Amino acid sequence: MQAVSEQARIQWELAVFFLRLGFTAFGGPAAHLAMMRLEAVERRQWLTSQAFLDLMGAVNLIPGPSSTQMAMMIGLRLAGWRGLVLGGVCFILPAALITLGLAWAYVRFGNLPKAQGLLYGIKPVILAVVFQALWGLARGACKNLPLLVLGMAALAAGGLGLHPLYVLLGSGLLCLGAVWINEGHPKGSTPVPAGWLTLSAASLAAGQVSLSGLFLFFLKIGSILFGSGYVLLAFLKADLVDRWHWLTQSQLLDAVAVGQMTPGPVFTTATFIGYVLGGLPGAGLATLGIFLPSFFFVAGLGLIVPKLRGLRPAAAFLDGVNVAALALMAVVTWQLCAAALVDGWAWGLGLASGLLLIRFRVNPSWLVLGGGLAGLAVQALRA
User: Which of 252, 273, 282 is nearest to 102 (CA)?
Assistant: First the structure.
């Protein structure tokens, strides 16, 4: 009876945390992972820093939205299959509902609500959260000089624009190769296999939008897409705009803007597009299609990751992937700096947020809310 009540408590805490995160996690995957680490590792001590790093490295090797998959992984680790579903659904649902509301306003009024002031205040706060996470994670990932050098090389490769998947796999394989050389090709060790599910949507005629076509298209995207929201933009433009002419260029840019300006997963861009093309059923099917593969990928991956750390070659591969993932996170953070720290007010918000995080350990959700209000206040003063 005691075990049942303890499990129910953990499930409740998971649901509340990821629902709150879904409403407040602005800034993209790097920011989402930073906020998850602060709560799961430092505040609640659900995971060790090494376990968090291993999960983060692993989800970067499968298709789909990495931060959403991380929510699923944390849920799976703490509460089994129910936790996996709770983590994923509770993180996705708030963003999908907000996006759905914006899509309704877009279809009804023909434009998007203005949110420049809100984002102006939130971006510096997100930077502070990400910097704190990078510092904490780097101490665990770069645990010797070779890994530090590898991390710097991955940082350079990511900064030069090499595809993230190549950076991650290359870093992991270099570490694996070093183990094989140092230990004389240990018997029975094999490289970590790299196979991913791919799906092909049925032939879809240009100009003819169907609910089944929407679902199949986004199911394909969720099954094969690696990389950031910018990679998602390339896929959407190639098929929805150029090939099938379901959307105009302007509509696509509006859809991507909604994904960037709302909290939670950027992949809820699918919710917006689904509503524009097929109303409420279209929004539901597009959202289900793009996120459904991740539940299956994470379920399979969750069975493997805990065992990998005990195998020397696999542990070396994970170490390489971890430092590369951090390097890519740092590249994204550097790119965000240019967009976030645009003036003295923004610098002040970022520095104040860093102080409150490090010195007083303020919950980042409150900082995001305060940053948004401060941004609106600055915008009003300038008006």
Answer: 273
> What are the residue boundaries of the structural domains of the chain, listed by start?
2-195+295-382
Calpha distance 26→367 (Å, rounded): 11
What's the mean pLDDT in 234-244?
80
- The DSSP line for 18-75 is HHHHHHH--S-HHHHHHHHHIIIIIIS--S-HHHHHHHHHHHTTSSS-HHHHHHHHHH
Helix axes 116-141, 312-340, angle to 10 degrees: 150
Q: What is the pLDDT of residue 2?
A: 63
How much is the pTM? 0.69
Closest CA to 194 of 304, 275, 50: 304
Encoded tokens for 48: 């060790």
Residues 6+ apart with CB under 8 A from 288: 215, 218
DSSP string, 169-229: HHHHHHHHHHHHHHTTS-TT--PPP-------PPP--TT---HHHHHHHHHHHHHH--S-H
3-state secondary structure 279-306: HHHHHHHHHHHHHHHHHHHHHHHHHHHH
Report whether 17 contacts 39 (CB < 8 A): yes
- pLDDT surpassing 90 at residue 237: no
The H-or-E segment that residue 236 falls in is helix 229-236
Residue type, 21: L
Q: Is the pLDDT of residue 215 over 90?
A: yes
Selection from 38, 96, 41 nearest residue 65 by Cα: 96
Phi and psi based region of residue 161 (left: phi greater than 0; alpha: psi -120 to 50; beta: remaining): left
Q: What is the distance between the alpha carbons of residues 147 and 132, in angstroms, rounded to a whole number? A: 20
Give the whole-angstrom CA distance, residue 252 versus residue 260.
Answer: 13
